[in-house]
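Project standup — Tuesday

K.O.: blocked on the structure for the chain from last sprint. Re-posting the sequence here as requested.
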Amino acid sequence: MEIKVNPGKRETKIIGEKDGILIVDVRGEAENNEANNEIMRFFSKKYGKNVKIMKGLKNRKKVLKFI
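H.V.: unblocked you, prediction finished:
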């Protein structure tokens, strides 16, 4: 699954989709992996599966894999 994140928001939520990529507001900051950790928690809880970030650890565009 491809996502584009907007870090530093008030809450983590999916705000829409553009060209097959989910746009996600993320509560955590982009520093110290806060946003990445929040993304993994959010999607794990939402879909009931473990999530791994396959690409984009330091970018706003990321590719997630559900395990």
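K.O.: great, moving the ticket to review. DSSP finds one helix and five strands in the chain. Helices lie at 34-47.
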